[in-house]
Write a structure and sequence with these properties.
Helix Hairpins, 270 residues, mainly alpha, 6 helices
């Protein structure tokens, strides 16, 4: 009994939703869709900003940790120098104290280096995440612009459809005078068939004219080019040479040079 009531309720909700969709103003629905797309883009931008903020925070922590490593190294070296000076002066007690201090600095240095390695690993992950976040925001912004352009197109089509419906209503009122009220006229039947055919053709045209996938491929290609440029900039900042490509490998010497000998010989004989 409960399952029957639940199925009945779902059927009622589906039927009511269908009626509401039929009676809803398409302009309102289009604006609702655009508003929702803008909201989703804003949320995505906020998430991307949080990812980028985390990357910058890790960069600051890593820089501070590297400073601590350098300080520990300098302190350990200075303690060793002072211990050596104390031994030279014959002060064994001072030398032992400085040796102990150097050992403490070395222990702290190891801990600082380990913390720096952990931060570097986290920073590398955050760097990858930030690049993906920026790409996602850029791609979603392009899709949003496409939806905005599609909204203008749909609104124009809606106005044309309304105008055509008014024309159809006028034609129906004229044709209804020539036939009984309970008998459909040939024009009415033809109009229904043409409307269905036009609707099917319109749907087919929209499906065939969709270039969203190709645009995404072009956008992805542009992002790949930008990523390659960024990688080369990072490699240049590190002082690394550009990796050799198959096209850049030196070609073996051709046999064109020996071919000049017969030519020279002919010139000498002439």
């Amino acid at each position: 009994m409960f399952d029957l009531l639940r199925r009945g309720w779902r059927y009622f909700v589906a039927a009511l939703s269908g009626k509401l969709d039929e009676r809803a103003d398409p302009k309102v629905q289009i604006e609702q869709a655009i508003t929702e797309a803008k909201k989703q883009h804003e949320l995505l931008s906020q998430q991307a900003a949080a990812v980028l903020g985390n990357r910058h925070q890790l960069e600051m922590k890593l820089e501070k940790q590297m400073d601590d490593v350098e300080k520990m190294q300098a302190s350990a070296r200075q303690a060793l120098v002072l211990a050596e000076q104390a031994r030279t002066a014959g002060d064994a007690t001072k030398a032992a104290e400085y040796e102990s201090a150097a050992q403490s600095f070395a222990t702290q240095l190891v801990a600082s280096e380990k913390a720096a390695e952990d931060l570097k690993h986290l920073h590398d992950q955050a760097l990858q995440a930030s690049e993906k976040a920026k790409q996602a925001v850029a791609q979603n912004a392009m899709l949003l612009q496409q939806r905005l352009a599609e909204r203008t197109k749909l609104l124009n089509q809606l106005d044309q459809a309304k105008m055509q419906e008014r024309v159809n209503d006028a034609l129906k009122s004229v044709s209804s005078l020539a036939v009984p009220a309970n008998t459909p006229s040939l024009e009415q039947v033809a109009e229904k068939i043409e409307a269905r055919y036009a609707k099917a053709m319109g749907a087919s045209e929209l499906a065939e004219s969709s270039v969203e996938s190709r645009m995404l491929e072009v956008q992805r290609s542009a992002l790949d080019v930008e990523g390659s440029q960024r990688l080369e900039a990072i490699r240049a900042s590190m002082g690394l040479s550009k990796a050799a490509t198959p096209d850049a490998t030196p070609q073996p010497a051709t046999q064109d040079a020996p071919a000049e000998e017969p030519t020279r010989a002919r010139k000498s004989t002439s």
